[in-house]
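Give me structure tokens for this 299-residue protein.
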Amino acid sequence: MASPALRQEIENGGFITAPGVFELISALIADRMGFKALYVTGYGTVASALGLPDAGLASYSQMIDRIGRIAAMTKTPVIADADTGYGNPMNVHYTVQQFEEAGVAGVNIEDQVSPKRCGHMVGKDVVPAGEMVRKIEAACLARKDDAFVIVARTDAIAVEGIAGAVKRAKAYAEAGADMIFPDAVKSEEDIARIVDACGIAVTINMGFGIRSRPTTPLIPIPRLKALGVRRISLPRMLPAASIRAMQTALTLMRQVVESGEPVDRPDLLAGIEDIMQLMGYDEMRALEARLVAPPLIAD
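Here you go.
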């Protein structure tokens, strides 16, 4: 649901760290960690739902089904990736209505052409700035609660350079966006230019665990704050951590099968008690004891 606290945090200049959740287990864990927002990453959600690259292959219905479940099962405000808004400004209007109804606190809408690509992939292209402005206006018109946050993402740096991205950021802010998300920004200097140009909150995407040089360099949070950034999202961290953990566990399983010897590695695995606590088994049993009658005893 729209979150007045999230809106107030943004307007008051607070700093928000939003981990990228991509299915219910990651969402439930992150929900209990005290973050001010969760970010449903399109990259991770498409990978976990379809096993495919983030290249515009997931449909609106596939995404909103998973995003709605995450929003329903968590208490932390959720900002969701709505890609390009799934069409023209009319589609964006409908998309925002449905995402707000699904319980999220805000959406990212980007200016890539459709089908889009992950922000750090090559071969991106962007729609004309005027078209994206109309999408932002449609998004703002569609929301029922003013606390609902419209994040305008621009991928123009890869296509038009920083000058084009700065021009777009300013136009998107004037169109009513609450936050600007310049993706694949290359330097602190470029971040500062966008912050100064748009005059509203700016969010940056950080990617940890990249072996090659990341598109956006890893910048300490105090430095980001000093530059004027108001949110950092970490979309790849939890999917990447999950992949590595499962690879490690399955390698161990193969060793157990090949050696025939049992191996217990509690350092690698959550205990069954941890899983049951995360999934709310105690609450389920308490409700079961209240609602399910004991077996009838024959006379």
